[in-house]
Amino acid sequence: MVLQELGIKFEQYDHPAVLTVEAQAKYVGDKGGGLSKNLFLKDKKSRFYIVSALADTKVDLKVLSQRLGLGKGGIRMAPEEALGQLLQVPLGCVTPFALINESASYVSLLLDKEFKTQPHCFFHPLSNETSISVQASDLDKFLKSIGREPSYVDLEANPPVGKDQPPDLAILVPSGTIDIPDAPENSTPSQAVSEKSFPVQKKCTPASVDSVKSAKPSSADPNAKDKPNNAAPQPNAFAESRLFVDEILKKTTELLLSELTEDVAKQEALANSVRKHLAPDLQNLTRTFCSLLQVMFKNTAYTQGFYAGSNCQPKRL
Amino acid sequence: MEKGEDKHEEEQDQVVNPWEVTAKDGGKIDYDKLIDKFGCQRLEEPLVDRVQRLTGRPPHVFLRRGVFFAHRDFDEILNAYEKGKKFYLYTGRGPSSEALHLGHLVPFMFTKYLQDAFKVPLVIQLTDDEKCMWKNLSVEECQRLARENAKDIIACGFDITKTFIFSDFDYVGGNRSFYKNMVRIAKCVTYNKVVGIFGFSGEDHIGKVGFPPIQAAPSFPSSFPHLFSGKDDLRCLIPCAIDQDPYFRMTRDVAPRLGYHKPSLIESSFFPALQGETGKMSASDPNSAIYVTDSAKVIKNKINKYAFSGGQDSVEKHRELGANLEVDIPVKYLSFFLEDDAELEHIKTEYGAGRMLTGEVKKRLADVLTEVVDRHRAARAAVTEEMVDAFMAVRPLPNMFD
Q: Where does the record place a coiled coil (chain B) (predicted)?
């Protein structure tokens, strides 16, 4: 077990699976130390957070949202799928230890400063059927061993946030957004846009272009049957490049505008203007670049097959 | 017999043939006169609109800007296409040098568009034998150059399931049908005729005299039995620069006598040298053209230093008189490569009125060309020796009309 390798002292308690702090309390509540409640949160830009606090600490999501610079109501509980996909833990098992997983590398961790006032605290490891108690300092050791700096926060504080008072927790906002394919706000479920949000670039990133390319072959056949007089040019290719470009523009403008202004209405207007001006250009770029890539992929595949086939021929007698 | 060149050129007149292009008195090429003299037709806007209707996509920028401005029987191709009769494309290159510049890519970029828009197969002839004869290069060197050029051609984005590239040295000797067609064609062209068309003299070696049938033969589908066997009725469309017209005038003359369709042509004007239309684009002067191997820095430098500007000498004079768009090279280059019609119009208006300065136009051009060259380089890097082999293999293309 990782903790042992790190020389961390801990007590392990096994119990039937528990889904709530109250249930957990039934088994380990009498052992002294503090129980933790762990919230898995998500903001509007698909960035994820674990807030780990003492069971008694009051955590106000509205306040937290403002302190993170996400505006009011910018943060909410993450959907269930994210739990499995990012933290790889079952329901009711959110824990700082989940950050040991690669999939959680972009999840930010906020720790209650009150943990430090306790001799030890209870967390789940990666299972609901166990609780382990560790000292806060040992938790830090664990976090550092996976390349994380522990961030302790006064979760009950409510400092004012405004023009002259920047959000005090803004640095804890992760740098990467993560797309969960089933998430409802993702308008293009067939596209896997790359993990980091990026400024508008002229070149497509290979990963995102791949998904466009892989979705295209299905459009090739129906078009072959089209008569030459058919006025609709490859509709699938156009629609996909439009979706792709829309997705880029949406993410870029959201990012830009959140930096510029908090006024949501103004954001909308600016976003529409940017989209209107950039979308056609980007679509053309995408289409020409992607169609060239598509033909190169096709040629490469054919060549490999041709080479293999021509080398397999039996020698003439 | 169609109108053609006279044997005796007037000394002052412009000279346009496959081996020489010179304007009259160091001026510009007069394309109207050329069309008149050659006897081909202007590609008018109704035809461009028709292409748009038939293909269901916007016409290529070269069509919109009149880069491909002349044709022979292109309307016949479209008529047949409307009735469901397809055609094949035939274009080529004389691989005389390793370094390709943007002007060389023009016919290939256009041919790729035609292949995509009409969904038709394409044969590309690399006339390594011609260059061997005319440029006095060794056979091996020409074959090598042919393969190198093939990579740049492939990088233009041709579809391997619809494209056959061949070098004369490789293909002509091994293919019985091709040589048969060559002989059939040669029998129909007298020595006097070929001298008249191409200007050969008693001093020219017989290789040159015997070459024209080789460039003519790919116009007939029976030259490619592995591709078009049983399709003797298939029409051929040849996109090329207008200096190649003599070859195909000769071919069109011969075709009916052999019972073949006359090949149709769609012809482009010449890509001007950086120093201006009067200047000559030469392989020996690297600053006369933008090469596909040039970096962004080199491109910017070449344009700034060598691109002939139609702007005035001083800013004040420029604001007053505006730029001379007729001779301005950056604007000319933009009309080839800037896809956005509206933006080009805007630049022409503003620059012509003196409100936009040369520097700005040159900067825009540098950006556009860098993008073209970068994209080409990236595609070129993906072309392997195996891919060239596959493109050049004598193989059937079962999906060539899909």
A: none
Are the C-beta atoms of residues B52 and B59 closer than 8 Å to each other? yes
Residue with the two structure tokens 């009011």: A72
Report CB contact under 8 Å: A299, B82.
Answer: no
Percent of chain A as helix, strand, coil, to the nearest 5: 45, 15, 40
CA torsion through residues B63, B68, B73, B74, sign: negative
Tokens describing residue B50: 């028709």
Identify all chain A residues contacting B56, using CB atoms and an 8 Å cutoff: 228-233
One digit per residue, the tens of pLDDT, for chain B of length 402 reads: 444 444 444 446 788 888 777 777 767 888 998 899 999 999 999 999 999 999 999 999 999 999 999 999 999 999 999 999 999 999 999 998 888 999 999 999 999 999 999 999 999 999 999 999 998 899 999 999 999 999 999 999 999 999 999 999 999 988 789 999 999 999 999 999 999 898 899 999 999 999 999 999 999 999 999 999 999 999 999 999 999 999 999 999 999 999 999 999 999 998 889 988 776 666 678 888 999 999 999 999 999 999 999 888 888 888 888 889 888 999 999 999 999 999 999 999 999 999 999 999 999 999 999 999 999 998 999 899 999 999 999 999 998 998
Inside any domain, residue A202: no
**In a shared domain, residues A7 and A156:** yes
Statement to judge: residues A113 and A9 lie in one domain = yes
Residue B86 CA to residue B252 CA, distance in Å, equals 19
Handedness of CA A187, A188, A194, A200 (dihedral sign): negative
Torsion region of A12: left, alpha or beta (phi above 0 gives left; psi -120 to 50 gives alpha): beta
The full DSSP string for A11-38 is: EEEE-S---SHHHHHHHHGGGSSEEEEE
Could you tell me if A10 and A149 lie in one domain?
Answer: yes
Minimal Cβ distance to A303: which of B81, B82, B384: B384
d(CA B33, CA B40): 11
Q: Is residue A211 part of a domain?
A: no
CA distance A120 to chain B (A): 58
Question: Cβ distance A91 to A19 under 8 Å?
Answer: yes
Domain ranges, residue A158: 2-172
Q: Do A228 and B371 touch (CB under 8 A)?
A: no
Closest alpha carbon to B253 in B243, B268, B263, B244: B263
Alpha-carbon distance A18 to A29, whole Å? 13
In a 3-state reduction of DSSP, which class is residue B292?
coil
> Is A215 part of a structural domain of the chain?
no
| Nearest Cβ partner for B379 among A202, A233, A296 | A296
Q: How many domains does chain A have?
A: 2
Q: Which residues pair with A14 in a beta bridge?
A: A130
Beta pairing partners, A126: none
| Under 8 Å between Cβ of B52 and B277 | no
Nearest-by-CA chain A residue for B343: A281
> Contact, A148 vs A50, CB < 8 A?
no
d(CA B128, CA B147): 10
Q: Which of A232, A291, A299 sits opposite B56 (nearest CB)?
A: A232
